Amino acid sequence: MRVMARAGELAYEALRSEILSWQLAPGAVLAEVELSGRLGISRTPVREALARLVADGLVEPQGGRGLIVTPVSAANVTELFELRRALETEAAALAARRRSAPVFVALQNELREVPALLTDPDPGRHAYYDLAVRFDAAIDEAVRNPFLVQALTGVRTHLARLRRLSRDNPARLLEAAREHLLIVDAIVDGDPQLAADATRVHLARSLRATLGSLDADPPTTPARASGPTDAPGDATTDATGDATTDAASDAPGDATQTYQPLTTPPKGAPAR
User: Fold this and answer.
1) N or C: which end of the chain has fewer CB within 10 A?
2) Bias regions of kind Low complexity — which residues (predicted)?
3) Which CATH number does 1-71 carry?
4) How open is the CA angle 25-272-266, to the nearest 5 degrees?
5) CA atoms of 107 and 222, how far apart (whole Å)
6) Residue 30 pairs with which residues in a beta bridge?
7) 69: CB partners within 8 A, 6+ apart
8) Using CA atoms, how far apart are residues 226 and 208, in angstroms rounded to an integer?
9) What is the architecture, at CATH level 2, of domain 74-216?
10) Alpha-carbon distance 90 to 140, whole Å?
11) What is the Cα–Cα distance from 209 to 201, expressed in whole angstroms?
């Protein structure tokens, strides 16, 4: 039983990683038999993994004909941002009320250095992405509400997938960094209304940029693809759905990987 549970966990992490990196593209058909053969495990743990992915919203039924990777469309991107706006504006307001000021003062100082970081001849985008992760983590800690944090974590899972839509856009990165600084300024000042308003403006601009990327590079829907496919970005994923979603994937190019039966966790699989 323990071995079966372990296999199910490994299958879940592998498939989740492939979906977030677009190795399994939106609309890809997920056939248990094919996935079982490719992953080198029985169909039962594959079925369990797919059930968890359905619960995550990353996989959905296809009219009684099996399961597919949830498609990406302007409509569901907009719906996701409606939820994101509700959660993140409240989180920013709560953070302004409950924050530990020194934590956000430190973030404030780092964000002030971002323009120089991003305009260097060798832009420090990865350093900025790390800062965005810490920005999210600081807000999660400040709100002191595990239910809100859990909801935000679910939203960020989907935002990580949207990141693959975006092309490298230094101008949007810089704009997003300035927007983050305005949010942090409001939190440091203990101004809940301004923190919420700054977050609302940031998300409106982020949505516009994301929809623009979707229009410019719409995802293709394969007729059948339960194996890995080329992805418009690298294969890494992280917790944040913020600056990286607003601007660009970490690096252009495809995301190929060698697949072997699952005896150890797949390299790069995100932790839960």
Assistant:
1) N
2) 227-256
3) 1.10.10.10
4) 60
5) 42
6) 67
7) 19, 24, 25, 26, 27, 28, 30, 58, 59
8) 31
9) Up-down Bundle (1.20)
10) 11
11) 13
Instruction: Please state whether 235 falls in left (phi above 0), alpha (psi between -120 and 50) or beta.
Output: alpha
Task: Report d(CA 184, CA 190) in Å as an integer.
Answer: 10
Q: Note whether 72 and 26 are within 8 A (CB).
A: yes
User: What digits encode the pLDDT tens for the residues 110-166?
Assistant: 999 999 888 876 777 888 889 999 999 999 999 999 999 999 999 999 998 887 766
Other beta carbons within 10 angstroms of residue 75's beta carbon come to 9
Distances (CA, A) of 266 to 49, 131, 153: 15, 26, 22
Side-chain-facing half-sphere of 139: CA atoms under 13 Å: 31
For residue 227, count CB atoms less than 10 angstroms from its CB and return exposed for 0-12, middle for 13-18, buried for 19 or more: middle
Per-residue pLDDT tens digits for 57-116: 999 999 877 999 999 999 999 999 999 999 999 999 999 999 999 999 999 999 999 998
Residue type, 252: P
